[in-house]
Amino acid sequence: MNSTKPSTSALQGIKVLDLTSIVFGPYASQILADYGAEVIKVESLTGDSTRYTGPTMEEGLSAIFLGVNRNKQSIALNLKQEQARDVLLELVDQADVFMHSMRPQKMKKLGLDPQTLRQRNPKLVYAGLYGFGNAGRYAGMPAYDDIIQGLSGIPDVVQKQSGTPRYLPIIAADKTCGLVAAHAILAALFQRERDGRGQQVEVPMFETMSSYMLVEHYYGRHLADQNQHAGYDRVLSEWRKPYKTLDGYLCMMPYTDLHWQNFFRHAGYSELAADERFTNISQRTKHINQLYEITGQIVEGQTTTYWLDFCNQYEIPASRINAINELEQDPHLQDVGFFVELEDTSGKYRFVRNPVSLENSTVLVQMPPRLGEHTTPIMENLGYTPEEIQQFYKQQLIK
Q1: Phi and psi torsions of 107, nearest 5°
Q2: What is the pLDDT of residues 4-30, one digit of tens each?
Q3: What stretches of the chain adopt beta strand conformation (E)?
Q4: Residue 338 and residue 334: Cα distance in Å, rounded?
Q5: I need a labelling partner for 49 at 20 to 30 A (CA). Which of 57, 115, 244, 335 fits?
Q6: What pLDDT does 7 receive?
Q7: What is the three-class DSSP state of 358?
Q8: Residue among 129, 139, 131, 123 at smallest CA distance from 28
Q9: Distance (Å, whole) CA 251 – CA 308
């Protein structure tokens, strides 16, 4: 390993104009910012709504905003006004990536459609982050995390397991689609390095989450000439949950044949190790409810610590449950410096760093921007004079 601390970032020199809001788009652009891209968050004069979502020490820097907007700059433009749009177009001329989450019809009306912008800047990667692909009948429909979770089948598989349709208690669609958007933009930038061309990128939430869901749950439907069901039985089992112990809960996952043989034999149930229902993965999948129910009955007879020691001794994957409020105390996360604290004028803030490490690249954590914090310097860099910038402020074209 190279012990010299890197002085550059992987995406240093890449400029991203980010017109997205809430979580989907900002999470994607935050990943690019973490890797060193200059991300300019283009906001309305009232700002991204997540600036006001959750606890805060300073208005406009609320909790949800802090989670997806580190390492960025902010310029606030009234894009309903032509002069403000002209500022954005000047930024487009310098940009490598333009990303937004507005309906194509609205972007066309503003003169910010892909054809117009890529005519100005042929090397531009133009990324549209939508609820639905524009070739389908749902195009343009409102799309929030709950809607996309519902359409992609998440409440249905939860109901199959628990008996009640529910959303996952995380913003699963926004965050998953944000990850996909980031890697799609990176792929387009990589292709541009080879052929010199920009391109239009479309990242639709519904299609993305359906793809994500069907990795395991398309299951028997892969066999096109057989009428088999969708849904991976093992993960849909009502017994797939942390095992109750004498004093708490255990996350344990024997998976291979050897795992299960070791578990049953050393727990004192050799007859189950030889049971034809459980001797191989195919049979275990067919009898998964019985397997998990029996395992639960065995586990509940000892303490969590007993089973953690047992599983460690026989190399069976297992762990305790971390409560959300306890994650900061997890010894492994402390070892790797996962949580970062920053001093700011309004107080001390704590962030989760990007989980990735790059040997030859810095991955920084810097404060998310206040609304319009960088409007003046960005416009100065475009060549506007102090007098012109003041006129923009007076006319409420910028903030």
Answers
A1: -65, -40
A2: 567 799 999 999 999 999 999 999 999
A3: 15-18, 38-43, 72-76, 97-100, 125-130, 199-204, 243-244, 249-252, 318-319, 339-344, 347-352
A4: 6
A5: 115
A6: 75
A7: strand
A8: 129
A9: 9
